[in-house]
């Protein structure tokens, strides 16, 4: 249900359950966590591309599996349903998105550093329309990416956001023709992997870690990361 493939220095991780629009059940979540951890440990991997098989990214958590008790009961301190979304990977992650990107799948895409989508993509926290809370940090990351007003628009209406609107908001980085999201995502990850890693990693960490810091302290942290 999770496929791993190396494309030079880029590790491609594919959610491969197309008959369920790549909805994630418990074993698949565990396998995803293991795949990301393996990419982090591999010194030959410089960047990761995360995608879905069969024309969809991920429809979210598998509701049938949840009803059957396949997922552990969530807790504030336990692993999140998608396993990886409370981790801070050291390597850049690009999400290549076609079709459905809903619920936990939406939260997984928000966890990535960059998002490339085709015009078929749709985004949203549709889980909220079914009374299921966000547990993979959508309420944290979405406002930081698109702003509080737009985030509340998405969350409080539980509506579907088309790819063109997502591009205008900065939710996705690039918009491509149907079927080309993976190609573009791999090209982007390859460009990232081809850059000198030291300054790149320092810049990325500064961006990701500056939110809780006052501006002056964040600027000093930028210099500390860059010069160490």
TrEMBL record:
InterPro entries: ClpP/crotonase-like_dom_sf (IPR029045), Enoyl-CoA_hyd/isom_CS (IPR018376), Enoyl-CoA_hydra/iso (IPR001753). Belongs to the enoyl-CoA hydratase/isomerase family. This is Enoyl-CoA hydratase-related protein. CDD domains: crotonase-like. The lineage of its organism: Bacteria, Bacillati, Actinomycetota, Actinomycetes, Streptosporangiales. It comes from the Bacteria.
């Amino acid at each position: 249900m999770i496929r791993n493939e190396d494309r030079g220095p880029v590790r491609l991780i594919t959610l491969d359950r197309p008959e369920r629009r790549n909805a994630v059940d418990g074993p698949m979540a565990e396998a995803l966590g293991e795949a990301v951890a393996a990419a982090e440990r591999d010194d030959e991997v410089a960047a990761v591309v995360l995608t879905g098989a069969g024309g969809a990214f991920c429809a979210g958590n598998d509701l049938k599996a949840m009803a059957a008790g396949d997922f552990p009961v969530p807790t504030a301190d336990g692993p999140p349903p998608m396993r990886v979304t409370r981790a801070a990977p050291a390597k850049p992650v690009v999400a290549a998105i076609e079709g459905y990107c809903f619920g936990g799948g939406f939260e997984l895409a928000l966890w990535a550093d960059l998002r490339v989508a085709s015009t078929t993509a749709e985004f949203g926290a549709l889980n909220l329309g079914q009374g299921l809370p966000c547990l993979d940090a959508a309420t944290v990351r979405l406002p930081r990416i698109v702003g509080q007003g737009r985030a509340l628009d998405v969350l409080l209406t539980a509506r579907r956001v088309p790819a063109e609107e997502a591009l205008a908001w900065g939710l996705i980085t690039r918009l491509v023709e149907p079927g080309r999201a993976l190609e573009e995502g791999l090209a982007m990850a390859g460009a990232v992997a081809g850059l000198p890693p030291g300054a790149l990693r320092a810049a990325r960490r500064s961006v990701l870690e500056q939110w809780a810091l006052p501006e002056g302290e964040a600027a000093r942290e930028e210099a500390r990361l860059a010069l160490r």
